[in-house]
Amino acid sequence: MTDTPAFDFNAFADLPILDGHIHVWADLDPELLWQTLERTGARRCNALSLSQLPIPEGVPSQLNTQALRFKQVSHGRAFAFGALDYSSGSFAPADLVAQAQQLDAQGFDGIKMWEGKPSMNVHLPGRLESELYAPYWQWMESRGMPITMHMADPLRFWDPARAGLERWSYGGEKFLSRDEMYAETERILNRHPHLKIIFAHFLFFWDNLPRASQFLNAHPAVALDLTPGVGGFLELSETRDAAREFFLRYQDRLIYGTDVGAGPVVDPAVPFEPMRESGQAWLVRAFLETDWAMPLPAGVGAVTALFTGKCLRGIALPRAVLEKIYWQNFERLVGTTPRMIHL
Ligand SMILES: [Zn+2]
Question: Is 305 domain-assigned?
Fold first, then answer.
């Protein structure tokens, strides 16, 4: 047993939520995952596969089959995004296009890219803006196939003084700087302005709303998802009024997500623990729906307890805005119903 509190979702609105960002993992139990999602208020979800580099030992290199199976047994309630497979070790640009075409043919609704996570990015066979990826971006853009993309990370991970304190640390020279990652992202989007990319975790602009505004204004086809970043919601809380104004202004560009399932994906030794996994959903919903000002309870956050006790302040969005963030924006970008599967 753990001492994780049972997060109470009763204070929140009864809305048919679509969780736009959850994970499948190696020994996933679909029924347990759905029970957990339903507790958080989600009636539909988008199940993400993931590829990792270096390829972890003893773990399937990517989780595409698992994501498709979950979609199949979910009977229309689950979308699924596949991931590119790097296990062959050598690539030509055409291979990535062929992989995207195959994922499309199998009935994936989009592609999940962890390739912008610095720990994976540093091991890619080529830069994301290089000739290797150019035909892939081109194909995804012309096909209109959506992407959920993890790009960058919290700034503290680049602080050499924090090396070893958390799971990730990008102090060494081999990693791109955070600014360089953003600059590369801008260059790719400028070349492919119709790419439908949902940037995960608010693109880590939590502490810089003016920058988030600039980015969304410059790239009208993209969206940001609200998957924690637990620390991000506390940073938004610090600028509560500006945050509320931002969420109202960009209400068509924001997508609800929670990272349920991320625990066992990030560390397969960690079993899926429903109470812990639902903590992040509670955090996002408390922020969006309530006007609470309260210390962050223990147990929120799959990977760190760094923020327990800090002040969480809600922005109490109107119902019509919640409806956009909870499912309408996702449906507009990805589709109203999951595509047919061809296994
Ligand atoms: Zn995730």
Answer: no
Is residue 260 included in any domain, yes or no?
yes
Residue 121 belongs to a domain? yes
Banded pLDDT at 301 (limits 50, 70, 90): confident
How many structural domains compose the chain?
1
Q: What is the pLDDT of residue 119?
A: 95
Q: How many angstroms does the Cα of residue 298 sit away from the middle of ligand 1? A: 21
| pTM (predicted TM-score) | 0.96
Lowest pLDDT segment from 168-177, 207-216, 294-303: 294-303
CATH of the domain at 224: 3.20.20.140
Instruction: Tell how far the Cα of 24 is from the centroid of ligand 1, in angstroms.
Output: 10
Q: How far is the CA of 317 from the centre of ligand 1 (A)?
A: 24
Burial grade of 179 (CB within 10 A; 0-12, 13-18, 19 or more): exposed
Distance 266 CA to ligand 1 centre (A): 9
Residue 276 lies in a domain: no
228 CA to centre of ligand 1 in angstroms: 9
The pLDDT of 106-117, averaged and rounded, is 98
Q: Which domain holds residue 122?
A: 17-155+181-268+317-334
